[in-house]
From TrEMBL:
GO cellular component: plasma membrane
Protein family (similarity comment): Belongs to the MreD family.
Segments passing through the bilayer: 6-27, 39-62, 68-92, 104-125, 131-153
Location of the protein in the cell: Cell membrane
Major localisation: membrane
Entry's Gene Ontology BP terms: regulation of cell shape
Organism: Streptococcus varani
One family name in Pfam for this protein: MreD
Keyword Cell membrane attributed: yes
Membrane topology: Multi-pass membrane protein
Keywords from the UniProt entry: Cell membrane, Cell shape, Membrane, Transmembrane, Transmembrane helix
Protein name in the entry: Membrane protein
C-alpha cells in the first residue's frame, strides 16, 4: 500500500518543505536562513518500505521538480536527492533502526545535501556567498532546526509508516 502512496507522500513533503522554509526565513532574525528538510526525513522512513530502485526514480523526479521550481536550472537537486537517498539506504544496511540513528543519519544527509548544493552553486556561479557565511548563517541553523524538528516529528512519522521497534 505504501508503494502506491509514496509519490503522494513525497510530493506533500516537498510542498510542506517549501512553505515551512519560507516561514522560517521570514521569522529568523537578521540574515539567518533556516531550511526545512521534511523531504529527507520522509526519505529516511520510506527506506524501510520501498525498494532502492523505486526510491531513486521517485527522488530523481522530485529532484528535477525541486530544481525547476526553486533554482531554475536542472542539475543540483536532481543529482543530490537520489545520492542522499542512496546514502540513507547504505547507512541502514549496517545500522539498526532507532531514534538516535535516524537523528545521526539525518544530520549527515542534510550536511551532505546542503554542503554539496552550496559547492555546486558556487561552481555554476549561482552564488558568491563565502563559505564562512554559508556555514554559520545557513548550514548550522538548518542542522539545528531539523535535528529538533525530527525529534518532534519522529513519533508521528513512525505511526504513519507503521514502524515498530521490532523492524
Amino acid at each position: 500500500m505504501i508503494t502506491y502512496l509514496a509519490p503522494l507522500i513525497v510530493f506533500l513533503a516537498f510542498l510542506l518543505d517549501g512553505q515551512l522554509t519560507t516561514l522560517l526565513i521570514n521569522l529568523a532574525p537578521g540574515s539567518i536562513s533556516i531550511s526545512s528538510h521534511i523531504l529527507l526525513m520522509v526519505g529516511i522512513f520510506l527506506s524501510f518500505h520501498l525498494p532502492l530502485a523505486y526510491s531513486l526514480i521517485l527522488f530523481s523526479i522530485i529532484g528535477m521538480i525541486y530544481d525547476l521550481y526553486y533554482l531554475g536550472i536542472i542539475g543540483i537537486a536532481i543529482t543530490l536527492m537520489p545520492l542522499s537517498l542512496y546514502l540513507i539506504y547504505y547507512f541502514y544496511q549496517n545500522m539498526k533502526y532507532s531514534m538516535v540513528t535516524n537523528q545521526i543519519i539525518l544530520i549527515v544527509i542534510i550536511f551532505i545535501f546542503d554542503f554539496f548544493a552550496f559547492l555546486l552553486a558556487r561552481l555554476f556561479f549561482l552564488t558568491n556567498l563565502s563559505m564562512f557565511i554559508f556555514v554559520f548563517y545557513d548550514l548550522m541553523p538548518t542542522l539545528l532546526f531539523n535535528f529538533l524538528f525530527l525529534l518532534f516529528l519522529q513519533p508521528l512519522l513512525r505511526r504513519v509508516f507503521l514502524i515498530t521497534n521490532k523492524t
